[in-house]
Amino acid sequence: MKKILLLFFVSLFITSCGNSQNKKQSKDTPDITAYANKISASELKDMLYTYASDEFEGRETGEPGQKKGINFIKDFYISHNISSPIADGDYFQEIPEAFFSGKAKASENVLAYIKGSEKPNEIIVLSAHLDHIGISGNGDINNGADDDGSGTVAIMQIAKAFKAAKRDGHGPKRTILFLHFTGEEKGLLGSRYYTTIDPVFPLKNTVVDLNIDMIGREDQKHEGKANYLYLIGSDKLSQELHDISEAVNKKYFNLEFDYTYNDDDDPNRFYYRSDHYNFAKNNIPVIFYFNGTHDDYHKPTDTPDKINYEFLKTRARLIFYTAWELANREERIKID
User: Fold this and answer.
1) Could you tell me how far CA 278 lies from the centroid of its own chain?
2) How many angstroms separate the Cα of 219 from the Cα of each of 62, 142, 225, 290, 295?
3) Is residue 167 a contact partner of residue 37, using CB atoms and an 8 Å limit?
4) How far apart are CA 273 and CA 266, in angstroms?
5) Phi, psi at residue 309, to the nearest 5°?
6) Which pTM value belongs to this model?
7) Which of 51, 144, 162, 268 has the largest CB neighbor count within 10 A?
8) Closest alpha carbon to 149 in 319, 316, 287
9) Which residues pair with residue 180 across a beta bridge?
10) DSSP secondary-structure letter at 98?
11) In terms of C-beta density within 10 A (0-12 exposed, 13-18 middle, 19 or more buried), how is residue 19 classed?
12) DSSP secondary structure letters along 12-50
């Protein structure tokens, strides 16, 4: 009888230890997919129908509609308890009118961040431009739903997903900066100000810039086909970045990555035409995510009803997974 009881308690002890170990492993290994799934098509739609509404008057740099835009972004970060790296409650990087050389009035970049748990001085930047081209001479409002309302709301949703992970004890090892640029339509001026005048985090500590500019539509080449994305710049400065990007895509989505515009001889020269380029000029690896142009580009017809919200959701989740990998891998990506 004593032997039977001894065997029973030994078995109970082993089972208890096993369950404890399983719980520890579960706690230490986050379910990344659960956080990616926080990015929803319905929330993206609700946000974009506000951000690209007539009320925001096309968000021209320095104009009243752009001021409404930055407050919309700020209020989102405050409501999700995502801090600013500038000062408590101050999410605006002020850019004086003189910097715009007559192209615009004084304006603001918007910054929010999640501090890294292990490598806080290494920075992963997620960027998109918050401005658009405003009101046409005939009074038509250019809402800029795809350009770049789609990138703006995608970054906000990605930030929400990272914040959910942090609340559960799985915050990123590296700091993630959510950076919304003004003045892109005036010549990449908001990103130029950040990279040349006032980098809130030193550029030497900036690991990568994942820049999103138009990811809510499809172009004529891919019309009616499965989900895709143009990627530009991923291998220009770091082959390792390109390889990581490819591996993440194959693991989670297997979207069609189209590198047409990445060609050095591409006449569109998109590599030089969005905010990531001001990071690339400073030897910081970049990826530019882009759906290509369409007939509504820079027209009043670029409206939120024409966005493919399932595409937008999937593309935003892909960028979240890529940022997660870059933020949590042991070694900083290497520059070639």
Assistant:
1) 16
2) 30, 19, 10, 10, 9
3) no
4) 12
5) -70, -25
6) 0.92
7) 144
8) 316
9) 110, 128
10) G
11) exposed
12) HHHHHHHHHHHHHHHHHS--HHHHHTTS-HHHHHHHHHH
Q: State whether residue 256 is helix, strand or coil.
A: strand
* Separation between Cα atoms, residue 3 and residue 269, nearest integer Å: 80
Rounded to 10 degrees, what is the CA torsion of 298, 303, 306, 307? 90
Is the domain covering 36-328 a CATH 3.40.640.10 domain?
A: no
Domain boundaries, the chain: 36-328
**What is the token pair recorded at 266?**
């591409």
Tell me, what DSSP letter sits at residue 90? B
CA atoms within 13 A on the CB side of 82: 32
What tens digit of pLDDT does each residue of 63-99 get? 999 999 999 999 999 999 999 999 999 999 999 999 9
Pairing of the two strands 206-212 and 286-290: parallel
User: And the tokens for 174?
Assistant: 């590296």
Distance CA 4, CA 266 (A): 78
Helix axes 151-167, 41-51, angle to 10 degrees: 130
